[in-house]
Design a protein that fits this description.
- The chain is extended and about 50 Å long.
- The chain is built from 3 helices and no strands.
- Helix 2 crosses helix 3.
- It is mainly alpha-helical.
Amino acid sequence: MMADSTTVFSALQSPIQNWRNYCKSSKDIPVSEAELREQRISFAFGNAPQSLENRITKDSVRLASEHIRLLPLP
């Protein structure tokens, strides 16, 4: 028996609204440079190819982030 689509939709509204409220309230919270750096490291590690899973560690990404710099656009 399948759930009624309106029931499923209604059940999703509360979590979606909670998420929207959370995003709105967190917009004005300052983030330190250290937190941003860790977020970038985590993002890079999470997007590393799975074929290199044993060779790329979070520490290796952290080390690489200390040496790789982006150049400003001309």
